[in-house]
Specification:
Blueprint: H1 15-33, E1 38-41, E2 55-58, H2 66-77, E3 85-87, H3 91-99, E4 103-105, H4 107-114
Parallel strand pairs: 1-2, 3-4
Length: 122
Amino acid sequence: MNVIGSRPDGWWKDRGRAMIALVDSLDRWASSQGDEVMVVFERPPSTAITSSVIEIAYAPKAAANSADDEIVRRVQADTRPRDIRVVTSDKRLIDRVASLGASVHPAASFRDLIDKPDPRVS
């Protein structure tokens, strides 16, 4: 939700729609990058979100900061945490994942990156 919340575009009126829109943007962007991409949400929306390009994950129990905790758990469990880039502007999450060796990309600038139109599509 940190990436979604980086723009005051009314996302809070329909979180499910905002989550789907984020996955759609990530799909377009990831398909041209060749990197593994995962998004972690606190809870699934009422309408299932699917992707053949990115991995969609959810915290095991929806609660405040549960997605952050799941991200940290996944970074800790990875054998190559230095190869992981976490997108967030949450200071506490930045500190937690950086201490494990992951790099961080600010949410707002990442949102700008993934929301750019694909120049290959006319």
